[in-house]
Amino acid sequence: MTAANLAIGSAEQTQDHAGDRLSALLALHLAVLRKSALKRINADNFTSVKVELERGWEAVERIRVDVPAGSKEAAGLELRRAFEDAVRHQLVREDQARIKERIRQEERLAAEARKAVEQAERDQRALKQALEIALRQTANEHSVEIEELRQRLAEAESRGARALSMAQQTKAGHVYIISNIGSLGEGVFKIGMTRRLDPLDRVWELSDASVPFPFDVHALVQCKDAPALEHALHTAFNHQRLNKVNLRKEFFRADLAAIMQVVERTHGSLVEYQIAPEAAEFIASRDVKDEDLDYAAALTGESATDE
């Protein structure tokens, strides 16, 4: 064997050893990726962790080093099982937390309903007394003043009946379907529920300083089992969530008519809804000129350039 042949053989052997070392390092890297993914997985981050794991695997495959057949699929299955375990544990914790929160919420709602009933009763007594006095003082029982008192009394009685009904039905509430095209764009809806006596209070709360424009209400569905209707809607449009990582976010890119079909199928009756959002502030904002904005900001003491 010549010196040249020996040199070639030695170089090939060195390359083989280098390839073996690289394969071993990459195998170790894949093992670390799997271990890290399993350590990080929880009930909220399956999609993001799976994407990172797949990207790491693809990076190794691009180096053209032999990767054991089926190892990527096995890692994905392993991650899915770990995710299912995490979800089960999370559900147990959430059930306990939900029970405690439901008890606290029902206590708050009961107190709120009692106050509303008491206020309505006070209003009714005062209005009845005012109506009796007005009737004694006038011969015209259909005067404007008396008709107004009768209307106010009817409204107070209606408020009292609603408050009493809500106090007696702990699952009763409203499912709301709202949009905010100025903040979220068109075709995006928030689907949630509230047990508040005035469901619009929840909508105004969402339209706080954290979003530039107020939400528009498309539908408020009063029902005896609001959690069940909300769950049915979230299930029906699960694949159309905006945030596919944090499933507690209740924003969906969907067709309003399709949403209302699910509402009516689940709720069992026709529901009126508003198709076009008002979006008054958003539409008006597009027409405001910069010089007018500067003028208004200067007049109110607000800086047009400050956040």
Give a structural overview:
The structure is a single chain. The protein is α+β, with helices and mostly antiparallel strands and 307 residues long. The chain has helices spanning 3-40, 46-62, 71-137, 144-168, 181-184, 200-206, 226-236, 256-267, 280-286, 290-300; strands spanning 173-179, 188-194, 216-223, 251-253. It has a four-stranded antiparallel beta sheet with strand order 3-1-2-4. The longest helix has 67 residues, at 71-137.
Q: Secondary-structure blueprint of this entry?
A:
Blueprint: H1 3-40, H2 46-62, H3 71-137, H4 144-168, E1 173-179, H5 181-184, E2 188-194, H6 200-206, E3 216-223, H7 226-236, E4 251-253, H8 256-267, H9 280-286, H10 290-300
Antiparallel strand pairs: 1-2, 1-3, 2-4
Helix pairs in contact: 1-2, 2-3, 3-4, 7-8
Offer a quick outline of the entry.
With about 300 residues, the protein is an alpha+beta fold. It contains ten helices and four strands; from the N terminus they run ααααβαβαβαβααα.
Poorly predicted sequence stretches spanning 5 or more consecutive residues: 6-11, 303-307
Structural class: alpha+beta
From N to C, what is the helix and strand string? HHHHEHEHEHEHHH
Helix content: 55-70%
**Number of spatially distinct domains:** 3
Oligomer: single chain
Question: Biggest sheet: strands side by side, in what order?
Answer: 3-1-2-4
Strand elements, count: 4
Q: Cα distance, first to last residue? A: 80 Å
Q: What is the count of helical runs?
A: 10
Overall pLDDT metric: 77
Determine Rg (CA atoms, Å): 32 Å
Instruction: Report the biggest beta sheet as strand number plus sense, adding barrel if it closes.
Output: 4 strands, antiparallel
Describe the global form. Answer: elongated
Strand content: 5-15%
